[in-house]
Amino acid sequence: AGAERINTEIVTLTRFLTEEQAKHKEATGDFTLLCHALQFSFKSIAYYIRRASLINLSGLAGSSNTTGDDQKKLDVIGNDLFVSSMRSSGRVRILVSEEEEEALVFHENPHARYAVVCDPIDGSSNLDAGVSVGTIFGIYKLAEGAKGTKEDLLKPGTDLVASGFTMYGASAQLVITMKGGTVNGFTMDNGVGEFILTHPNMIMPKKRAIYSCNEGNSLYWDEPVKAWIDSLKYPQEEGGKPYSSRYIGSMVADAYRTLLYGGIFAYPADKKSPKGKLRILYECAPMAMVFENAGGQAVNSKMTRMLEVVPEHIHDRSGIFLGSYEEVQKVIDIHKKHG
Ligand code: AHG
Ligand code: MN
Ligand code: MN
Ligand code: MN
Asked: What ipTM does this complex have?
């Protein structure tokens, strides 16, 4: 009996990483230190996002990036925070960011063995509306003797050692997965300033009648994509119920909902964007690994497994279908039928 007991079995991200490292006898601790630097960048980006409209940090920076996006002030701030935390971690050799034209090589870390790809603020067009945005990241381990050039990053997503994202929503939600591992979700507890494990071993529903895409692009879609969407909206089978549509316009928020509720997110390549809109290195591949490790699947507009797609350049784009296993399978089957 005695005093009311509280739950003391709290798994912070820090404890989770320590326990993960203990599973790998050969671990040097470099990956763990890199993840601590990652964790700090999420905390500091969250801080600025939540204060932006109070300290005149909303709106445009007045510049645009290599992929032609108008940069928001927070795109630039998020990028600068991320770059400095990766550089100062001493564990990253090379970094690709949506907001940097060239890969950043950290000459001060000549023996660092990791490469990081990142989308510092995903969904930034939504920022001024107060809608959830996020940060997407991927971690590659450099091959022995790698010189630390951008060619070290033109790899398929199957080479990722870890990937994930943080969504700055009602609370900051971090989702991380290691190669061949489980998917684990953490919620920021601002009271103690720690990410707390709240969604261990995330397994997504095999199917769910929710689709998520920008139907404003329908005019530009290929026939198989139109046939697929119509099969969801106007079901032919007896008693079939139409799917529900949910589209936020921030990939991280649409992906997080899809991961939790099931369904499918799609940004197909089309006549307007023949290579698709989303970038392979820091949007499609990291998300594909999270979804595959949660039991879902991800393919490009040619129905190729997303994780096997090799980017031609660091800002290369791809169409993407990402979601519950059976929902993506429907897209694949319809594309097969259309030959
Ligand atoms: P970013 O803000 O990092 O440039 O990414 C925006 C992307 C992605 O978040 C979202 O799924 C997609 O753009 C939305 O595009 P549309 O506005 O064309 O639907
Ligand atoms: Mn952008
Ligand atoms: Mn993005
Ligand atoms: Mn972005």
From this structure: 0.99
